[in-house]
Amino acid sequence: MTRVERHGLDVAAPLATLIEEELLTGVTPDAFWSGYAALLQDLAPENRRLLQVREDLQAKIDAWHAETGPSFDAATYRAFLSEIGYLDPEPGPFAITTGPVDPEIAAVAGPQLVVPVTNARFALNAANARWGSLYDAYYGTDAVAGQPAGKGYDAARGADVIALAKAHLDIALPLVDATWAEVCALEVEGGALRLKTADDNVRLSDPAQFAGYLREADGPLRLLFRSNGLLIEVLVDPATEVGQNDPAGISDVRLESALTAIMDCEDSVATVDAEDKCVAYRNWLGLMRGDLEETFEKGGETVTRRMNPDVSYLTPEGDEIVVKGRALMLVRNVGHLMTTDAVLLDGEETPEGMLDAVVTVACAMHDIARNQGPRNSSTGSVYVVKPKMHGPQEVAFADTLYARVEDLLGLPRNTVKLGLMDEERRTSANLLACMEKVKDRLVFINTGFLDRTGDEIHTSMQAGPVIPKGEMKDSAWLKAYEDGNVDAGLAAGLPGHGQIGKGMWAKPDEMAEMLQAKIGHPRSGATTAWVPSPTAATLHATHYHMVDVFAGHQDLKAREVASKSALLDPPLLKGRNLDPAEVRRALEECSQSILGYVVRWVDQGVGCSKVPDITDTALMEDRATLRISSQLLANWLMHGLVTRDEVEDALRRMAVKVDAQNEGDTSYRPMAPGYDGPAFRAARALVLEGAQQPSGYTEPLLHKYRREVKETA
Predict the structure, then answer these.
(1) Rounded CA separation 160/170 (Å)
(2) Where, in this chain's numbering, is glyoxylate bound (predicted)?
């Protein structure tokens, strides 16, 4: 790849062209590069120092466990962690002061999507997932039992869907002495909503829930309602196949679904060089300019997907109300660990997180500068999610980094609002101290069970063998972790300024199960939770109609705070012997999971996809799920629950299974029978070298083998 020189930096030419000719607005290329060179000179050494602190702390913990053994006193362990600086003193009382913040983050609870920004089609789907059809979400998933009969519209299934949707309206928009199934007429007269049953006029239990309407020429009457801050749209259109058979002419119920969407530059992408980074940045730029589009073939037709417009309604008082057609978009930058060859300094790769910071914020300046048409942020904010930080000092460093980016780009202080991923053990053990470091720009704390489990295993690698992966969700540390995240958010007054978030539902095809399980997130106090698809966002939105999250915070504030001792209790077997069959089953499950994800990452550059597990159930996989499986097997290998030969054998047997699961993919390269391709070697290294990987992260090895594939392509 051709390279160019900019203020002492050796820059990949495609990146320089993208930045200088497409991306910058309000900043000259010379000012950008001179500022970025100075930023790297000043901050890259501190980035390296903080990474060394991680390694030093881990070495001390490893040595302590090696000397102490698996039986140790909790108080002694906690004192040791404080002594070495792993645990920081709790900060005094403080309050989050972030502002101004868009209402989707500060004031309304609802679902959140996370998608790879390198996939323009997925990114557009997520941006447009602000609204979704509840009828379609029920009809097309297992949320309603059975399958549609035939290729056309199945009226019997449709009737079940409509009954279920109207039953939900009875919960979200209750009527006085009537149900929505009884409504036979809907109209707006003089700005007032009129509802009729066969016997009488009826009204909403809370008339203030009626928020507006839009009467389209030769189209539906669109009625807008509000439930716990979320909008609901009831479409009345007797001309449609569904509406003509409905007593009230209702043709659809549409829900405000994905209030926010994280466009991911991190765990769900496979960006290993300047070429890949340019794809990510160009898509994010298109989202911020509002002109991203993607053309593809679907059903034998060419389809071009664009970003949805905003829509204007009339309020009952006759005023105009503009309703957003797009999710509020955040961008997830990479963490502090990885470096990139896109920009070299003194011949060395530079921190990838710093490049993400300056480029993604510069892209968002197009949105800040827009004075007409749809905007991402109505407050002129840029929302960045920063993952994989270990403790308060690293969070403070992130605050410094984004302040320097603001200065470089001429933005007011705290224009950049930060989301803090609470996914590393040292961060969750010091969460309030971490939050205090960014109290003026914090808009998000989010638990991530998957990465957090991987870090839990790696931190306690030398302590002893850990419990099987399937038992982790029942361990004491996890409940303390999930509750402690909410406790910290409420103690610091985050609601009103930012989100308290929970993690992903990993089974994109199991929506009936999700509807049963995921209501636990708003009940827990979370104002947002991750979902794997726009359809899942629509279904999860129903939970926020049922649960007033902000009202529930008052009760949660009164409970006893989560136990720090439980949080720091490693999930060890503690002398318990596992049945050999159980060990073999876990070895096979983890091996198959690792291979199923890694083969697509390394060979095809796919960072997130539905990957069939060992039972052929599709799971939404990214690097976090990989981190758990590889770290668990590395731990069991270290402590003799499995041998190297058993690992090698399981990987080979599971490679055959993964090959069979992918036989319909014409671009797939089988791993068997050679077992010597980059993908298989990467999977093998993730286990055999897992204990030596920094914090148990998978990125260094994945990048190594993916680059090998690209270089030989």
Answers:
(1) 15
(2) 332, 423, 448-451
